[in-house]
Predict the 3D structure of the following.
Amino acid sequence: MAPENTPLKVAVVGSGPAGLYTAEALTKQARGAVEVDVLERLPTPYGLVRYGVAPDHTSIRSIADYLRRVLELPNVRFLGGVELGRDLKVADLRACYDAVVYCTGAPVDRRMGVPGEDLPGSMAATDFVNWYCGHPEAPADRFTLDSPEVAVVGVGNVAVDVVRVLAKRAEELRATDVPEEVLARLAASRVRVIHMIGRRGPEHAKFTLKELRELGELANVDVHVRPEESAADLSRASRQVRGNVEVLRDWAARVPLGRPRRLEVRFWMRPVEIVGRDRVEGLRLERTRQTEDGVVGTGEFETLPVGMVLRSVGYRSLPLPGVPFSERTATVPNEAGRIRDREYVAGWLKRGPTGVIGTNKSDAAETVRTLLADLAGRTPVPRGDLDVLLASRGVSPVTYEHWLAIEAAEADLARSLGRGERVKLLGLPAMLDAYRG
Ligand SMILES: Cc1cc2nc3c(=O)[nH]c(=O)nc-3n(C[C@H](O)[C@H](O)[C@H](O)COP(=O)(O)OP(=O)(O)OC[C@H]3O[C@@H](n4cnc5c(N)ncnc54)[C@H](O)[C@@H]3O)c2cc1C
Ligand SMILES: NC(=O)c1ccc[n+]([C@@H]2O[C@H](COP(=O)([O-])OP(=O)(O)OC[C@H]3O[C@@H](n4cnc5c(N)ncnc54)[C@H](OP(=O)(O)O)[C@@H]3O)[C@@H](O)[C@H]2O)c1
């Protein structure tokens, strides 16, 4: 049994919503003293709240203000620039902490599995999102929007974000934190027609009503849906689906107003090939239909003359070295968050890449309940010292104060450019400069 005043020491790996809700739940649920170290590979906290949520969705971005309060708790410590796998092994964490909770999310794109997917101009939405969110590993010159027609494959909320950023005038994003170089590239965009492709019907689309409606309200865009593709069987549909289909039917009846950009929302069309000799020259689609055995191709094809394809078909977790991983589900097998003795998982790595930010709160609370029940009356682990270990490996973590200096530099940059509250610094060197001075 641990003496009553020995704090429970927990390492949380990843500082996205799952990691920070886990840290918060540990401080709230633990009966005795608890100390939480949040390890993060980037110098910045908040995961997809910073590098995923669309820059023009400022109210959702403000969830960072809530998460900030977790990092400011006296028994929670932020250690940025520390990557499990690169700087530390699982064995190191097991030696320094009573328990470890992995919350590393789902950072890479799923594949469509069609020929031509690797042609230049065929890009993952993940990369596009990282680019406009100013992820330090996404160079500003990764995207040049020089094709008049582009396709976005997928009809989920990420696809809606991507379409909105492509469709808006750059001026409309000026007050956001989009990096200045990215804004300049968006301003120079030659995109005129955006095709958004659903491989099934409107009733199967994954986007939510509020997000869908927003597309129809964009001042710069004529939205178009083919009446025959917006028809749907609503006999067993939820309110959400009925709402979506109503919006789509309304769009199908719209008369184009000659706006600078056009959005074509397509359904029952599945990508079968990305065509082109040296780069993307088109997207070949096959019409689909529902049968009792599922959705099948009809043998009717169409090729869209697009110069870029953005694949927004979902995200995928990556295995962490030394941590069990199911390749089939791309998640870490667990029981209510427990992986094995003293190791736990929460967030997208636990349940896959679905659900909104708030979903991670109840998910993290479940993991923490399991952890605390398992460790009640524990024998403390012989404690290695992580700080000493990192120093011996030449790793100097980015502290919370360093992060505040990065934030301050972003606010200064916004002021100097006459933009909104902050503008993202681009690249790791700029962030290092911000706190090293
Ligand atoms: C493009 C996009 C937009 C979204 N927009 C919204 C929205 O508007 N509203 C909404 O409610 N939900 C939105 N979501 C969903 C929401 O972002 C997720 O539910 C949530 O971020 C998942 O949390 P997580 O902590 O599991 O993963 P993440 O947020 O991805 O956090 C994982 C963290 O772990 C770190 N990490 C990874 N590997 C390591 C390692 N080896 N060592 C140390 N650290 C590591 C990462 O750098 C990251 O900071 C969006 C998702 C995407 C993809
Ligand atoms: N504003 C917000 O609240 C917000 C914003 C962004 C993201 N999020 C959340 O983040 C999560 C991830 O979003 P997401 O959009 O990446 O995933 P998603 O909701 O799972 O949508 C993925 C889309 O890709 C399609 N797809 C998958 N494989 C395909 C293929 N091979 N060919 C063609 N289409 C294919 C899917 O169609 P099928 O249905 O046919 O498989 C689906 O339309 C979701 O829970 C989402 O709600 C929320």
